[in-house]
Amino acid sequence: MADSEDDDSQQRVNEGDYVVLKRGDIYKAVQIQKKKKTVFEKQWFFLDNVVGELYGTTFEVVTGGTLQPRKPKHVESSADAKEAGTDNRHIQDDGKSQKLTRDDIETLKEQGLKGQEIVQQLIDNSTTFRDKTEFAQEKYIKKKKKKYENSVMVLRPSCRILAMMYHGREPGKICHLRYDTLAQMLTLGNIHAGSKVLVFETCAGLVLGAVMERMGGYGSVVQMYPGGGPARGGVENFGFPPHFHNTLHEFPIQHVNALLAGTLDTDAKSIDPTTTDDVQANGEKSDPTAPQMDSTDAGDQSMETNPVEISAVEKEAEEREKRREIRGQEKKVKMEEKRKKLAAAAALLQGRNADGLVIASRFHPCPVLLGLIRFLAPSRPFVVYSQYKEPLIECYTKLREQGGAISLRLTDSWIRHYQVLPNRTHPVLLMSGGGGYLLSGTTVATDTQQVKTAPTRAEEPPAKRAKLDEATEA
């Protein structure tokens, strides 16, 4: 009984959870916060009533921005579509078939009518609705529902949903990575629980979150990031439990060469060379060219000032000094945390026994791949994504030249959506033109001794030919 209650609680929305709002084909990731106004598709509402409801519930927006769970309807409005015509050729789209005007519809909204009721009013006041075919009537009802029904579905975040959300709203932010291509990356990279995976991506954290979701909180993930810090906006939208983040490590990509050469120093000074000696209390650096006050001038000025003003200046100086000490301590703590993270990630990478490598970034992948592939153990997979195939062709050529990788494959992703309805199943007219390209392969250990002995083995055939010549002479 307790297990069933726990499963039911996991399927319900709690305050502070990250959810995905869905209306039609449009998604938006938000965090559940009470008394906070949320704007979605030019409409605002509050998410207070969502807490405690099951994921996948559809809500209707009522007056005042309040969400109410939609009650299941046994009879749909499309029941009126029983009276249908057999042909649409005589129907003219002249704009005169609808008796309700825009002002009438706005009046109905002000009166508090719901979207379903407004759609029914439009059906009743249409002079050509009864003459349309059954398919045309369903299409008309679907179109009006999408426009006038104020419904929102609350979904649990997942890799597929978030990938569709980013690709539909901001595809450039994730390098136009489509969700089917992301699924192939997880499969080709052999991402599973208990493995050690290296991830280098500039897709707002979507690829990193997908890898963490597939691993389920077991194993370790090392995020290789460029610049001053890692980008993990997409990881937060997944809403992972705290123990998922314990498996996540970070390592700057600019220190890879030093780590491979064995010259990496994990001291805090090597991480951030800035010091607090030349920083004043207000956060500005001291200017050596600024005019300095003479001691005699300071003495004359102190004689003219009021003792009360002197005490106020001393208090302000003491507070400024305290703030400076606090900022210095906070900086030391941050530096120590950053040093520990760098040392932990370096310890994971020094073994060069990673189980997988995933690369998806806007940078040129060739130097990144050639540097990070050295951290993989033999017989481990790697996969590289690029929106264009030319960079991956260069990676393919370099790997073939230097060796260390087999089963190299350069593929492109293609997907087609179908509308599956009775007597009208056909491909959707609007679909994605391309899903990018993937380069995948498997690492192998190179035997240098075998390469050195190869020329001596090549000399054996001439010796055999000499023996054959002697036999023929005899």
UniProtKB/TrEMBL annotation:
Source superkingdom: Eukaryota
Name of the protein described by the UniProt record: Uncharacterized protein
